[in-house]
Design brief:
The complex is a heterodimer.
Chain A: E1 9-13, E2 18-23, E3 32-38, E4 45-50, E5 55-56, E6 61-64, E7 70-75, E8 84-92, E9 96-99, E10 103-108
Parallel strand pairs in A: 1-10
Antiparallel strand pairs in A: 2-7, 3-4, 3-8, 5-6, 6-7, 8-9, 8-10
Chain B: E1 4-7, E2 10-13, E3 19-25, E4 31-37, E5 43-51, E6 54-57, E7 64-66, E8 76-78, E9 87-94, H1 97-100, E10 104-105, E11 109-113
Parallel strand pairs in B: 2-11
Antiparallel strand pairs in B: 1-3, 3-8, 4-5, 4-9, 5-6, 7-8, 9-10, 9-11
The chains are: A mainly beta, B mainly beta.
């Protein structure tokens, strides 16, 4: 989705926090923001989603800007198993998911 | 539970041939969808369905047909394959994407059109 932009790659050290940014400047008021991650040769896996408020779950936190034009996925302590491609998506009318091009996260031991 | 099962995992076609990618889920999900994934472009929605007998187009529907006769199955048909349809295809399902936000993906089907 050209309207959802992410950095191509990021690098982190193991056990340090990681902040993965996403810009979705044309998001509409009812579009949810979702994050998925994908390991090599596997299908994407759900991470977290939200609408306006910041969200936390056992995998990560999602920080949504007040104007909703950007969001940040936060991995509190990166592990080697977190190395993957992370996709920011928006869902229109709850049924159409538009994926960004993804950020490849490399975690260094 | 098997989750979302896609077959075949790999397929090579010649231009103009037809084929069907199969997708089945055993989670009683009403919502099912098909994506294609090309290098550097993320995933793009092809078609989706919110229940048996109901389908709609996504971002890139041209060249693909779908139907939904049962809750469990959502096949994707290529009537006349073209090299531009070389891609990895993913099927995904959800109980209610609007409330849970969670899509369950299959492992993908890699299609090469020569």
């Amino acid at each position: 989705d050209a309207k959802t932009t992410q950095p191509n790659s990021m690098e982190s050290n193991e056990e340090e926090p990681v902040h993965l940014p996403c810009n979705h400047s044309t998001i509409s008021g009812t579009d949810y923001i979702h994050w998925y991650r994908q390991l090599p040769s596997q299908g994407p896996e759900y991470v977290i989603h939200g609408l306006t408020s910041n969200v936390n779950n056992r995998m990560a936190s999602l920080a949504i800007a007040e104007d909703r034009k950007s969001s940040t996925l936060i991995l509190h302590r990166a592990t080697l198993r977190d190395a993957a491609v992370y996709y920011c998506t928006r869902s229109a009318n709850f049924n159409k998911f538009y994926f960004g091009s993804g950020t490849k996260l490399n975690v260094k031991p | 539970n098997a989750g979302v099962t896609q077959t075949p995992k790999f397929q090579v076609l010649k231009t103009g041939q037809s084929m069907t990618l199969q997708c089945a889920q055993d989670m009683n999900h009403e919502y099912m969808s098909w994506y294609r994934q090309d290098p550097g472009m993320g995933l793009r929605l092809i078609h989706y369905s919110v229940g048996a007998g109901i389908t709609d187009q996504g971002e890139v529907p041209n060249g693909y047909n779908v139907s939904r006769s049962t809750t469990e199955d959502f096949p994707l048909r290529l009537l006349s394959a073209a090299p531009s349809q070389t891609s990895v295809y993913f099927c995904a399902s959800s109980y209610n994407p609007g409330s849970t936000g969670e899509l369950f993906f299959g492992e993908g089907s890699r299609l090469t059109v020569l």
